[in-house]
Structure prediction request, 355 residues.
Amino acid sequence: MQVLDKLKSSNKSERRVRKKFEEAKGLSITSLLDVLTIILVFLVKNVSTEVIKISAEPNITYPHTITNDKLLEKAGTTPIKIFPDRIVVGTEALEYGSPADLLTNAQKRNDLLTYLKMEAEDIIQHQKAETCLLVQADYSIPCEYITEIVRAATAAGYSYIYFATLEDADWLKKYSVSLAE
Amino acid sequence: MRQYRPSAMRQQKSQTVPQEPNLVPIMNLFLTIIPMLLMMVVISQIALLALNFSQGESGVSYGQGGGGGGAKTEKVEIHILGEQYAQENNTTLGMEIREPGFKPMTISAINGYYDYVTLNKTLQEIRSRKGTLSDITVLVHPDVLYGDLMKTIDICKVNGFTQVHYTATKVEYY
Prediction:
């Protein structure tokens, strides 16, 4: 029996051999993570949370200014966007009509005044904040429309009116160069 | 029956292989935050120019010159003349600066563009004469463009005129 056992154990063909597979290498994302971390830090540094309500409209050409007044910390803001062909009012982006309606349509003017009064009352009563109107208008809008909106806003009780522009500390220098040319 | 502990040689392999931290959740977080922040960066480019109507000023005043009511403070006025006004009155397009005690000064437009460089110099001169003056009135004609109004107000603020009053030549509706 012992001899038989020995023979069985010495039979190498039956011996199982485990193949050694190399472990699959995972995608190395460490360097990508480093880049993303740098971008994240850069963005967090640059992003200002105070103007979070103001979204730049691609269809509006903003005028350039050197000054950049800070929005009041405790301010209830009503945005109004004046495109060359239409006006959008409020945070709900309500379609008001064309800028020409401000001058030609008395009913529309009253509607705007009523809406702004409601908004101003809401800000004063519920938010207990300063009333601010934020005007985002295209460079090429004639001032007569801006005047009507400012007039309606002040009649409705808005204390501050902010005009959205693009900050450019060198616009006057560039302007003088272009005038000289 | 004797029991044996696992062989130290068996354990050796698993102990030596270092485990990488699972970066996938962090990556997911970053991939969410970064596009959001990128969108906000566009937002933060916008600057603001403020007009304050809370200090006794009831709104846009209308009419030529003057400046409405209240105590007669020394006010400098900038009239931005529109093309229509220039044609009707046979004057040049440009701006007019009215300062108490001085003759009105006209800054003519160059090739149809308002001369902000001269306006800036003029306001600097006024600032050097009147160091404490903070009020200035900008009177705008209806056909003047919004961009030109903003640039005029901007130059006023740059020269230390923090209280800019907005005035227009228009009929009152409200």
